[in-house]
Amino acid sequence: MGCLLLVISCKGEADTNFKSDFANIKKHAVIGSKYEANSIQEWQISNNRMECLVSKENRNIRLLTRQLSEQKGDLEMRVRLGFFNDKISTLNKNWAGFSIGLKEQFNDHRDNVIFAKSLNIGVCTNGALFIGAPSPNHKNEKVIEKLSKGVDLVLTVIPIGNTYTLYVSIYDIETRILLSKISKKEVTSDQLIGDLVLVSNFENLKDDKDNNTKSVWFKNWGISGSKIITRSKKSVNNN
């Protein structure tokens, strides 16, 4: 589809804030020019939300207009998400959420989505929150019963001295009640430089029927904070 030139000015933090909006996009449309997927055919816009049409490992949507800067600052990122596929894996590897600090390789943004390492943050199908990597934690029944209808996942990043503290919370979308929260101290600054990504991750499913099941949906992706910068005069190849 050629190249799209994104020209965005930076006039302070208000201009770097971001909020997704799919209300005026027709049903079953592709994800649009602000985003890139490692496989565009596996996503669609429907019911004012992004839907992942498969249950596979590391299916992701990268935001093309904002990223985490090298400068010291704070961050709040939130998204509403829900699970179509609620299969709980033995090693707790089925999850949805964020990947942050994704860094480019070979100066090619397509490699960026597929190969670069980043910090994963999310909620697993057994209701457990994690920062870094999922582990076979005990089930959180309170969270599990809300996952099909949707929950609000919130990440807050606060600089403390030369490192950062990360707070992850999950809320009931109807009552706004806090369902679960975790935190991680002394996260180094180099882990918080780079791209912002939404992830659907389902591993070790048995067959093609499982793999071709819808996995998760996302909506109301919001990003703010002094650590966010816009991408300015950057050519993006939309395949």
Which CATH architecture is right? Sandwich
How does the helix and strand content classify structurally? Answer: mainly beta
Question: What profile does the largest beta sheet have?
Answer: 8 strands, antiparallel
The total of helices stands at 4
The total strand number stands at 18
Mean pLDDT: 83
- For this structure, the CATH topology is Jelly Rolls
Output the radius of gyration.
17 Å
Helix content class: under 10%
Strand portion, in percent? 35-45%
Count of spatially separate domains: 1
Q: Helix and strand succession? A: EHEEEEEEEEHEEHEEEEHEEE
Oligomer: single chain
Shape: globular
Note poorly predicted spans.
1-12, 105-115, 233-239
Termini Cα gap:
6 Å
* CATH level 1 name: Mainly Beta
Structure description:
- This is Lipoprotein.
- The strands form four sheets. Strands 2, 4, 5, 8, 12, 13, 14 and 16 form an eight-stranded antiparallel β-sheet that branches. The chain has a six-stranded antiparallel β-sheet with strand order 3-6-15-9-10-11, with no helix packed on it.
- The N terminus and C terminus are likely disordered.
- The protein is globular.
- The chain is mainly β and 239 residues long.
- 8% of the residues lie in helices and 44% in strands.
